[in-house]
Amino acid sequence: MTLRSFPFRSFPFRSVPFLSGPFRSIAARAALGAAVVVAATATAFAQGTPSPQPGAVPAAQPAPSAAPGPSATEDPVVARVNGRDILRSQIVEMQQSLPAQFRDLPLKELFPILLRQLVDTRLVAEAARSARLDQDEQVKKRINTLTDRVLEQAYVEREVKKEVTDERLRSRYQAIAKEFKPTPQVRARHILVASEGAARAVIADLDKGGDFARIARDKSSDGAAQRGGDLGYFGQGDMVPAFAGAAFKLKPGEYTKAPVQTQFGWHVIRVEDQRTYAGPSFEEAREELHAAATQEAAEKVVETLRGTANIETFSLDGPDARPEIRLLPRPAR
């Protein structure tokens, strides 16, 4: 648990390095495995491997010559399956299809499991073609649905890229920056323990000259312990009231002489610095600005297409059962 009412930065994903050598967490391994299966399916489908013509006998063929692209040194072959190459770029593409918490892990750590899954996908797909499953009507419907999804994503990405330019992001930033009001912030450390007695023992150690960061690493029970209890800068509204109230009464270098109780346990707090925060710089805000602008641009693309299309919507029982129904409007953001 953390000090904010919603999960706080005390627990960054990378602070739980389950991908260090063998997997340390069965749950994490299962989650990654599931994500990799999805990513492998999407990657293999997006590559658009052609299906054999009706009546043809599928056979493993070497990959056809591709248009000029990265050299073999830049995009080396990392595996071959029945004579067909798997390239490094396909592994990278698969990595980018993973959820963010896995996508940000080093490629070298992900490579073995990504490669295994891509090889397995290739093998199973070849077996399916040999069994002529690609000619099954139900399979064709599913392939068509996937085709629509891939085309949807590709089209929206292309159109969004035209709209979300650096110039427009800077303009958006300037508009928001004008509304930002400077706010006081403190940078603080804390030590979180389970009981008031344990907190008082920590204060006694500090009174004897104990090092706050060292004690935090040894005794604090939250994710900030490995950083010596450092929570970084925060405003008064960023923390639960009891914690923020105690922190903002301290001067730099001071720590609480009595334990502070919150729903998370008992805290000892030390303030390192105070500042007036004038808002993030453009570079600091770029990622969030880009995400918001991308979302808005994507919605605009779809709404524009809706405005020029002939759309008829019916009930679950079809066009003859009930009058036409209206599409629900997008929820307000």
For the structure shown, list the relevant keywords:
two-stranded antiparallel sheet; single chain; extended; Chitinase A, domain 3; four-stranded antiparallel sheet; disordered N terminus; 6 strands; 333 residues; alpha+beta; 10 helices
Q: What do these coordinates show?
A:
The chain has 333 residues and is of the alpha+beta class. It folds into three domains: 17-47 and 74-135, no CATH class; 152-177 and 280-301, no CATH class; 181-277, Roll (Chitinase A, domain 3), CATH 3.10.50. Helix content is 46%, strand content 13%. It is built from ten helices and six strands; from the N terminus they run αββαααααβααβαββα. The protein has helices at 26-46, 88-96, 100-103, 107-130, 137-163, 166-179, 196-207, 212-219, 241-247, 282-308; strands at 77-81, 84-87, 183-193, 230-235, 260-262, 265-277. The strands form two sheets. Strands 4-3-6-5 form a four-stranded antiparallel sheet. A two-stranded antiparallel ribbon has the order 1-2. It is extended and about 80 Å long. The two termini are 28 Å apart. The model is unreliable at 1-30 and 49-68 (pLDDT under 50).
